[in-house]
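Hi all, long-time lurker, first post. I run a small reading group and we've been trying to get comfortable going from sequence to structure in the token notation. Rather than ask abstract questions, I figured I'd post a concrete chain and ask someone more experienced to write out its structure so we can walk through it together at our next meeting. Sequence below, copied exactly:
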Amino acid sequence: MRKIFIIVLAGILWSCDGDPIEAGVVTTIEGRIYDRQNELPFENLKIKVAEYKTHQKSIYMHTEFIQWIDSTYTDQNGDYLLEFETSGRGDLYQFHVESRPNMWDYNNGTFDIPYIGKNSNIDLGLLHLFPVKLVIEMNDIGHLPVTVNPRFYQDVEDINTGSGTVERTIFADKNSDNTVYFSRRLTPNDYEGYTAVIPATHTTELANYNLTLNNSDFVKRE
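-- Answer (accepted) --
Happy to help. Here is the structure in token form:
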């Protein structure tokens, strides 16, 4: 009997929902979004507040998105100020920074709002990325397409031609070397790759980088 009681109690504790925060609670978040490495602010960057409801299922926590509550934009100095009210439906609030191909966010754009009903100052340090045009000479490459994967994740078009010159623009950290990983599939479970190192450009303007891809460059991926 005691064992049954413990099991039932554990089931109750492991299958509970968080209590919603009452409606109308005003919270203010403010701060600055700035690139310290390049000493540049992030201007006109959109910030949105999301409301969630948490559900405890066994040892796992499930988070249910409810709605976007409010939004604002950073000013020319990267400063922002956002005031929002709770709806009474959620118990977890986060603010999200919009994604851009020319910036790198070390936290994937999502930040918890630590104190509901109070003022919080949250400064963020992100990184500006700058354009680099890759001028790629394809030397009779087989097993197309070749995927292009920059160091900082971006959606870059695959290369579908094995010969001739193709161009792809990526965004890179101008102050350090950047890697670009080229990958191709030989069979459904057999891949090869090649990593090219793009030297630091030290410029905010569009830079060009020329490279040649050979079949012998690709190495089997373990």
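A couple of things your group might point at:
Residues 129-220 form one domain.
The chain has a mean pLDDT of 91.
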